[in-house]
Design a protein that fits this description.
The structure is a homodimer. The longest helix of chain A has 18 residues, at 120-137. Chain A has helices spanning 16-20, 30-42, 65-72, 87-96, 109-116, 120-137, 161-173, 190-204, 220-229, 257-266, 275-280, 282-288, 297-301, and strands spanning 11-14, 47-52, 79-83, 100-106, 142-148, 178-182, 208-212, 234-237. In chain A, α8 crosses α9 (220-229). Chain A has a single domain (11-301), classed as Aldolase class I (TIM Barrel, Alpha-Beta Barrel), CATH 3.20.20. Chain A has an eight-stranded parallel β-barrel, surrounded by seven helices. In chain A, β3 (79-83), α4 (87-96) and β4 form a beta-alpha-beta unit. Chain A contains 13 helices and eight strands. Chain A is an alpha/beta fold. Chains A and B meet through α8, α9, α10 and α13 of A and α8, α9, α10 and α13 of B.
């Protein structure tokens, strides 16, 4: 139960302030976002997706994106990430000073058209445009392509693994530093997770990025375990399980950061996150979104008797 | 997604009618129990723990145990199981005609005393007495020892793996056919599940029985996956996640049968259970226990688009 190493074995990439907050109807006040991000940092999280750069008329929850980035940047040692849908959003994100951007690119042709009204090929071109922009104005910034609907699609059903490998490879060829795989629709299973990450790794090697799993059918942690088994070391999750994909009908529920950290730490895998402080970070989330349901089995059950943890942030 | 074999690859042992019903305050009427068991059988479940044989003054929910066993026996091909706390309960179970009994034996000395007010050594003697009784009056009946608190204890904290191996080995030496491992307190993690099942198998070989996991901290399915990875092929679970251990404070929540079957079937592992019919089996459970919370992510999200399943019961 005690992690021996001081360097985390896995990177927990917290997506709540972006993925979570853009999925709920209410808008969290900026000051509450600051307090929540501060609490996440205090718990030891070292990569946080803090916002998305989309027009405020589409997502009023993200109108303060630049301000939130500037606040997050006051924390040394934290990788400040933002989601960007296109080159225009990327320009705003780079100007705000983010360290890393993530752009979703669908492996499903049908989902791509329904979600962003663009083909997969057009989205790969957009990645190329984003890379050019980054090279020009902020060459140190990392670009991740998040391959969405990688494990299945609510519109077209099955998504062939060839399609996932193709989209991931094209995004890397376009200049992205990483391609991660997202179970946007909660259709992944552990056998598929192992197969698909192995196939993607065979194509793009260590440019294989995060596992972004959903808990739609309860398999979120089992799928993270399966991904870990085949060498994945970065995991997206959301405090309180906030968020999911607002475009995929019937799909909801990110993996709960608290439960994910509990699983890894209990296994002796160092996350760098202090679980007790992570539970404390739920308070500003709940204060900033009164009445919004917040999930998590570990917070409900409490930590087991005899729990000890030698965390970085401890 | 389609299981090719007609012989199930894993055995889902449904414990809801025992573990679930004895954990809730309300008593399900006998006729509702019959309807629920019928629906479970119709879905393809082939091992069901239908009741426990304990004095009705302690567990009024189980006052109709013998009647429930007799009803379950009308279904050919179903292994009818009962929990027995001791030799006296075993006698009643054998007289009622069960095919298999399971007796819980704690690996934690503290939990054994708190739960049944007997030492582990006394419980192992009880197993021996049960075996003698079985040999005398119903030699075909199988006896399983369910090693409880195998992964941790809410009273004493850590439970040493040596203790688990010792208790399991002693139960087999006493004449039990199988020893399964129970995460009574929801403290198991996947690394520990793999280690402990490997150690127990090294000691008692193919007499290693079921994985009985709880979802207390959300790790139920991940732990089942870990157990499958090291060769476990029988899994206890409960429809709607009903039940858990009423004696372990803060511990609740069996693995949800619906989610477990979804995970295995999605992986191409044949459970013999028809998932659509399994979802239908929730209706008699809910009708028989009005107002009782019933869990499950797969029932809530529904089956994914394109879901097909070649199930035995289909």
């Amino acid at each position: 139960m005690i992690s021996s190493s001081k360097t985390p074995d896995v990177l927990i990439s917290e997506v709540g302030p972006r993925d979570g907050l853009q999925s709920v109807k209410a808008t969290m006040p900026t000051a509450d976002k600051f307090r929540w991000i501060d609490a996440l940092v205090a718990a030891g999280l070292r990569e946080i997706e803090v916002c998305s750069f989309v027009p405020a008329k589409h997502l009023p929850q993200m109108a303060d994106a630049a301000e939130v980035v500037r606040h997050a940047l006051t924390h040394p040692g934290v990788t400040v990430m933002a989601l960007v849908p296109n080159a225009r959003g990327t320009e705003a994100a780079l100007k705000a000073g983010v360290h890393k951007v993530t752009i979703p690119v669908s492996a499903s042709a049908a989902h791509s058209l329904a979600n962003v009204r663009r083909t997969r090929e057009e989205m790969i071109e957009e990645v190329r445009a984003i890379v050019r922009l980054r090279d020009e104005i902020a060459p140190g910034v990392k670009i991740e392509a998040g391959i969405s609907t990688a494990f299945g699609c609510t519109i077209q059903g099955e998504v062939r693994s060839e399609d996932v490998v193709w989209v991931a490879s094209e995004c890397i060829a376009a200049g992205a530093e990483e391609a991660g795989l997202s179970d946007t629709t909660g259709m992944a299973n552990p056998a598929q997770v192992r197969r698909l990450f192995n196939k993607v790794r065979a194509a793009i090697g260590d440019k294989t990025g995060a596992a972004h799993m959903h808990n739609t059918r309860g398999l979120g942690l089992a799928n993270c375990l399966a991904a870990y088994d085949v060498g994945v070391r970065t995991f997206d999750s959301s405090l309180g399980g906030l968020g999911g994909c607002p475009y995929a009908h019937g799909a909801s529920g990110n993996v709960v950061t608290e439960d994910l950290v509990f699983m890894f730490e209990a296994m002796g895998i160092n996350t760098g996150v202090n679980l007790e402080k992570l539970l404390v970070a739920r308070a500003p989330l709940m204060a900033g979104l009164p009445g919004e349901p917040v999930y998590g089995m570990t917070p409900e059950a409490g930590l087991p008797k005899g729990w000890t943890q030698a965390a970085l942030a401890g």
